[in-house]
Structures are given as C-alpha cells and as structure tokens.
Amino acid sequence: MKIAVLDIAASKTGALSILRDFYGYVKDHKNPENEWVFITGVRDILEAVPEKKISVICREDVKASSKNRLMFDLFSGKKFLESLSPDVVFSLQNTLPKGIECRKKILYVHQPLGYQTAKKFSFLKKEERHLAMYQYMYAPLVNASVKAADVTVVQTEWMKDAVRKKTGISKERIREIAPDIPDISEYAKDACFDRKSFFYPAGDILYKNHSLINAAVRQLKDEGIDDLKITFTKDKPLGRSEVCRKYFESTLLFPSYIETYGLPLAEGMQTGNPILAADTPFARQILEGYEKAYFYDPFDPVRLKSLMKEVYEEKITPGSRKTKSGSSNSYAEIVKLIEE
After folding, report:
1. Which residues pair with 180 in a beta bridge?
2. Between 9 and which of 46, 75, 93, 155 could a Cys-Cys bridge form, CB atoms 3.0 to 4.6 Å apart?
3. Per-residue pLDDT tens for 125-136?
C-alpha cells in the first residue's frame, strides 16, 4: 500500500509537532509492506529513510503564499497527488485537494476557527483580519474537504459535533482521537507550589486572550495585590523542562477561548494544582472530573480576578496529583485507520 501524507502547511508550533510525531511513529512502527510519502512545505524538517520505504517531497512553492496554497487546493494539487499514485491520501493540513481520487481519503481537522461560536472576527479590524479570513473564507474549503473525505479525524467531542453540524456528514465518517498526553511527573521532584505564581503557556495570538489576564492583574493591583508572578511564554520562550516545572510550581491560567484541544490543560491536570480556565466546551471536556478546575467568562476579567485572589489568599489550594490522561497511542489509532 502507498500512503501520501500531506502537510505542506506545517512549519512551526503545534502543527509541526504533530507532523514530526506522526512521522516518528511511522518510522518506528511501520508495516514493511507499506510505502510512505510525506509532502511538506519546508526543507529538512523530515528526512527520507529509503530502507524503510519512507520518502519526503518538499513543495516550498505551495508554501510560499496563501494564493499558491489556494491554487494547490483547488486545481494543481489533484494532478500532483495523483501523479504519485497513492492508495491512501492522509491530509494533516485541514484540507484535501479538490477532486482527488484514490482508494481512501483521510482528513485531520485541527483548525477550529470556522467551527467555534465564541467570537465573530472582523475584516474591518486590522488585528482580526487574518483570523476573519480563516473563519469566513478558509472554513468553506475545510467543510468541502470534510465532505470529500472518507473519514475525518478530530481531537475533541465539541469539534466532532460542530463538524457534523456544519457539514451534515454521518457519524460513521468522523472519528474523535485525542492527542497523546506526555507524562510530566518526572518534573515534580523538588517542585514547590507558589500561591503568587501564575503561568500561561501560549503563543501571541488574539484569541489566546492574554489581555484578560492583564486586565485581571490591573484590578488586583488596584486592590493592593502587587506581588504576583505572571509568566507568559509569548514574552519569554521556555524550554520543555522549564514549562513542566512551571506547571508544578504555579496556578495554570488558560483564558484562550478557541482551541481544538488545549494540551496545557491536560498536562496541568497531572499536578493537582488549581487550573483557572475560560468556560469553553473544550476546557469543560478536558477538565471534566478535575476537582481543582475553575471557570470564568473569557471576556470578563472580574471573575478571573476573583479566582486569582482566592488562590493568592489560599482559599483555593492544590489537591492531589493525578496520573496522565487522554489517548496513549493516538498515532497507532490513525495508522490503523489508514491501513483498514
């Protein structure tokens, strides 16, 4: 069987991590009878392994601009992929080239902007224009791809429901497969919870909602609480070990109101520390049953300010540490789906 894995879009952060992790799983566990072709948009992020029948094709030309990506999805992608004669096409980039024909098409959807209802972004606001494009112009391409795919994979129940509602596909054509949750227990050694320390690991994207934390901190300062330690990874990138230590030493803040999954929530649950999260479907699903989860309106800093104050005053304290949760072998499930 020949499998083409399409991920020209991935070049950084979570999308690139998913691609690399999936590639790593395939390399270590592949069926020797299968041939894999990974199609990327950035050179040297993956390497070919000829002895294992793994090849890599880089399409920097498609990655070069949004227009090129659109032309690939609507026109040239079909011819290119069919020239490879794959039995299965597995797209990790939310869309499938229009009209492609093969034995099986599998789509991995991890772009939530067209499915969320928390916020309508505006083309009239410069800081929202890029997000509005994804919400209103890119989303129809994702929906069309979902309808064309034999199976669509999503990470959470809320995405599963939202995708089905938008596209009308049957429940048999969509699978919920949660991402793997790393075990961070090794970083607990000698870690001491600090009631003044608050941690938010997130990139500098509007819907990550750092401004809500800043507003809550200003209100706390007005009340005389001015010795909080707030750590944003958007301001100071941290190594993996530092991030994991922060989980155990701090209260996790998660005001983001748009996510497919929200991995920091699942990682933070292992600490037993308080987690202050925006009241969203994905956060409710991930934190279900976690006794130290507290929720607030992602557009109102008053409730967040009150919760942070309760942590500071030790009215909210850590609980017992948890073992890791979630899928332990999501890539094995995806490969099984491909090979069925």
Report:
1. 327
2. 93
3. 999 999 999 999
Looking at residue 2, its amino acid is K
Residue 116 CA from chain centroid, whole number: 14
Residue 253, classed as helix, strand or coil, is strand
Q: Confirm if 4 and 39 have CB atoms less than 8 A apart.
A: yes
- 237 lies in which domain range? 185-312
Report the alpha-carbon distance of residue 27 to residue 49 in Å, rounded: 8
One-letter amino acid at 281 equals: P
Tokens of 7: 């991920």
Query: β-strands 2-7, 88-91: how paired?
Result: parallel
Is there a contact between 326 and 178 (Cβ–Cβ < 8 Å)? Answer: yes
User: Which tens digit of pLDDT belongs to each residue from 280-303?
Assistant: 999 999 999 999 999 999 999 999
Contact 55, 48 (CB under 8 A): yes
Alpha carbon of residue 308 to chain centroid: 26
Co-location of 135 and 194 in the same domain: no
Cα distance between residue 115 and residue 125, in whole Å: 21
CA gap 57, 340 in Å, rounded: 25
Do 8 and 54 sit in the same domain of this protein? yes
Q: At what angle do helices 210-222 and 301-312 cross, to 10 degrees?
A: 60
Residue 180: DSSP 8-state? B
**Residue 100 sits in a domain of what CATH number?**
3.40.50.2000
What are residue 6's DSSP bridge partners?
39, 91
Residue 195 contacts residue 312 (beta carbons within 8 Å):
yes
Contact partners, residue 24, CB within 8 Å, separation at least 6: none
Whether residue 25 is predicted with pLDDT greater than 60 in this model: the reply is yes
C-alpha span between 27 and 48 (Å, rounded): 10
Q: Per the structure block, which two tokens stand in for 245?
A: 């230590």
**Distance from C-alpha of 201 to C-alpha of 253, rounded to nearest angstrom:** 8
Clarify whether residues 237 and 290 are in a common domain.
Answer: yes
Q: What is the DSSP letter of 41?
A: S
